């Protein structure tokens, strides 16, 4: 172990861009951060307004501060004070209101591009890939952030695992991690990026006292040794954790009660008549003062007003004045990333997720197989080549495709959860939307065709004795329909934030496809605009070509006596074309002519429309920012 740690230390030292940093204990720094070791983060007169007119409320009012490199600013306050709102506003992520003010990094306005290159935000609620292990999560993050040469990445990952206390769960899947372990894993991923500016929203949430203390000590150490700027919201730190911070900002009712070095806070509150009782945690004392649950609202307002009157120029409350030249100016250019390399990493990661995730693909393959086998046996009598079974042969195609596509509703939920993870990674500059879309789309195509084999080989070609000559066109047609519904699921998962609502919309679409398939109602007698649904929904095109594909080469038995109630199809010659023509009188969607190529193109065209809408949603949401006006 000592040998491994010495190798890690050597690696870190080799890759550090700032020669004055202490490389023996730090993490490897990417070359993208060179020139950003003396940065200053400023925010001035930050306001956040929700509602309008008489219902308008200020959740933040003129919040101002500044943090230099190597310092940690703790934002404290009771529940509802505005801590998370401030972090959301400063990270350009507060979409539920109107943020305003001035936010800069080294004098440059904080934009989405600057954020992705030089910043990282760790949200209050952890979000990891549930079917990746702790080590795999860090491994892929390290590769995507390009923290080191590929051969050295395992050393860097092992160092993070050791420092975050994740050794006991390093090979455990994220879905099985405790809340505290997930929190430590989130911090580990954040530290891998080595950002210039790191936002942490409640980093000790879910941690016990010992773990919280160790993690915060590590965060403070990294800030000083790596010259990072760290701003974190924290609810009620212990005395030891509190004393580790450099500056503190105390909020209440969306206003500042104090902002400055922690060593000056006791003096300030003593000067306004609120000294710290002996042997009391300073953080608890300050929070009790500004919490209207423990102090009267009038008393809290007096403390807030006192700070405003005492510090009219609050921009310099942390370090000097707002315009002092205490750091570098400008933003260093970001590291150029190879799109092909990113895409290959995404291929590997999502291939592993596809294999492991029992819900999204593997599980559905098995369920579709079992369900269609059941239908195959239910329609056992339809396997013979008798004209009386022609309608049943048509209906078995409906069930083989209809039930399978209906199961796409679970994909809406799974893909919604997946996209939320991608949003976080994109926000923090880990992945590019293009790499994700290409990797995911290419990986899914063979999986969809494999699903068609599960759906049709045993149930259709073995049990129902479909002609083996139709296996290729039949499975391709089924894959095209399934692909169409998968694209719909992706589209709904991206555009609708609530997965339950998205699932309901998927079911509505599927039901409309079933209703307007032409199997129950002749499209010619549908009232406008209902007839339009017959032409723009994919089910009718599938049923027409599926029935033709499986029935047009069957050698039917000869029938005598003509059609009857017990046998609606009765063609004396048994000619397949005449049998299909007879079925057309019962099911308007059936056609004796071959429309296979046109139908599959139309189905793929509908799928393409869904894919385009999905792509628009991905690129819109991954680039959307709540810009501060």
Please characterize this protein's 3D structure.
- The protein has 629 residues and is an alpha/beta fold.
- It has 2 domains: 2-316, Rossmann fold (3-Layer(aba) Sandwich), CATH 3.40.50.300; 339-623, no CATH class.
- It is built from 22 helices and 10 strands.
- The chain has helices spanning 2-15, 83-90, 112-118, 134-145, 153-163, 179-193, 209-226, 239-243, 265-271, 282-290, 297-310, 339-356, 362-378, 390-406, 409-427, 433-463, 471-495, 499-515, 530-536, 539-551, 576-584, 596-623; strands at residues 40-50, 57-68, 72-76, 98-105, 108-109, 119-122, 197-201, 229-233, 247-252, 255-261.
- Strands 6-7-8-3-9-10 form a 6-stranded mixed sheet, with helices on both faces. The chain has a 4-stranded antiparallel sheet with strand order 2-1-4-5, with helices on one face.
- Residues 1-31 are annotated as: Disordered.
- This is White-brown complex homolog protein 30.
Give the helix tally.
Answer: 22
Name the overall outline.
elongated
Helix content: 40-55%
- The CATH homologous superfamily of the largest domain is called P-loop containing nucleotide triphosphate hydrolases
Largest sheet, if any?
6 strands, mixed
**SS elements, strand count:** 10
> Into which percentage range does the β-strand content fall?
5-15%
CATH architecture of the largest domain, by name, is 3-Layer(aba) Sandwich
Number of domains: 2
What is the CATH topology descriptor of the largest domain? Rossmann fold
The rounded distance between the terminal residues' Cα atoms is 52 Å
Mean pLDDT: 86
Runs in which pLDDT lies below 50 for 5 or more consecutive residues are: 1-34, 315-325
CATH class of the largest domain: Alpha Beta
Strand order of the largest sheet: 6-7-8-3-9-10
What structural category characterises the helix and strand content?
Answer: alpha/beta
Rg calculated over all Cα atoms: 31 Å
Biased composition (Polar residues): 17-31
GO molecular function, one term: ATP hydrolysis activity
Subcellular location: Membrane
GO cellular component, one term: membrane
């Amino acid at each position: 172990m000592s040998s491994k740690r010495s190798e890690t230390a050597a690696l870190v030292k080799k890759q550090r861009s700032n020669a004055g940093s202490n490389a023996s204990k730090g993490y490897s720094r990417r070359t993208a951060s060179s020139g950003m070791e003396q940065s200053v983060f400023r925010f001035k007169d930050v306001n956040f307004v929700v509602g309008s007119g008489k219902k308008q409320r200020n959740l933040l009012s003129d919040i101002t501060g500044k943090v230099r490199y190597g310092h940690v600013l703790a934002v404290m306050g009771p529940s509802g004070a505005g801590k998370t709102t401030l972090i959301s506003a400063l990270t350009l992520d507060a979409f539920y209101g109107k943020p305003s003010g001035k936010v800069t990094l080294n004098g440059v306005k904080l934009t989405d591009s600057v954020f992705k290159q030089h910043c990282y935000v760790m949200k209050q609620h952890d979000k990891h890939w549930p079917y990746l292990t702790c080590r795999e999560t860090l491994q892929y993050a390290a590769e995507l952030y390009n923290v080191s040469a590929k051969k050295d990445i395992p050393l860097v990952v092992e160092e993070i695992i050791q420092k975050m206390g994740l050794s006991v769960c390093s090979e455990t899947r994220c879905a099985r991690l405790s809340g505290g372990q997930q929190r430590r894993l989130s911090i580990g991923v954040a530290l891998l990026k080595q950002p210039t500016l790191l936002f942490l929203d409640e980093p000790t949430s879910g941690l016990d006292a010992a773990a919280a203390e160790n993690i915060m000590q590590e965060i403070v150490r990294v800030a000083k040794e790596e010259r990072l700027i760290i701003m974190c919201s924290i609810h009620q730190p212990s005395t030891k954790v509190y004393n580790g911070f450099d500056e503190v900002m105390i909020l209440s009712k969306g206003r500042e009660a104090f902002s400055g070095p922690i060593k000056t806070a006791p003096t300030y509150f003593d000067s306004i008549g609120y000294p710290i009782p002996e042997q009391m945690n300073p953080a608890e004392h300050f929070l009790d003062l500004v919490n209207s649950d423990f102090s009267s609202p009038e008393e809290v307002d007096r403390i807030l007003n006192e700070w405003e009157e005492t510090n009219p120029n609050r921009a310099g409350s942390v370090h000097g004045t707002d315009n002092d030249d205490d750091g570098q100016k400008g933003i260093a250019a970001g590291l150029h990333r190879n799109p092909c390399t990113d895409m290959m990493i995404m291929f590997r990661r999502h291939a592993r997720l596809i294999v492991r995730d029992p819900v999204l693909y593997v599980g559905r393959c098995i369920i579709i197989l079992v369900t269609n086998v059941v239908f195959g046996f239910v329609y056992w009598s339809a396997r013979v080549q008798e004209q009386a079974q022609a309608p049943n042969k048509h209906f078995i195609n409906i069930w083989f495709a209809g039930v399978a596509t209906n199961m796409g509703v679970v994909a809406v939920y799974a893909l919604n959860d997946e996209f939320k993870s991608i949003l976080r990674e994109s926000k923090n500059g880990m992945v590019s939307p293009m790499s994700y879309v290409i990797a995911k789309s290419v990986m899914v195509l063979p999986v969809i065709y494999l699903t068609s084999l599960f759906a049709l080989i045993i149930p259709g070609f073995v049990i129902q004795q479909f002609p083996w000559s139709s296996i290729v066109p039949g499975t391709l047609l089924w894959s095209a329909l399934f692909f169409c519904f998968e694209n719909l699921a992706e589209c709904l998962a991206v555009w609708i934030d609530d997965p339950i609502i998205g699932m309901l919309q998927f079911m509505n679409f599927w039901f409309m496809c079933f209703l307007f398939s032409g199997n129950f109602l002749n499209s010619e007698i549908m009232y406008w605009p209902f007839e339009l649904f017959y032409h723009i929904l994919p089910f009718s095109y599938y049923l027409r070509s599926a029935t033709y594909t499986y029935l047009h080469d069957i050698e039917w038995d000869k029938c005598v006596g003509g059609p009857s109630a017990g046998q609606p199809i009765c063609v004396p010659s048994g000619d397949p074309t005449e049998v299909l023509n007879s079925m057309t009188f019962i099911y308007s969607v059936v056609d004796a002519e071959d429309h296979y190529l046109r139908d599959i193109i139309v189905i793929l065209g509908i799928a393409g429309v869904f894919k385009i809408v999905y792509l628009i949603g991905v690129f819109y949401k991954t680039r959307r920012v709540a810009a501060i006006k």
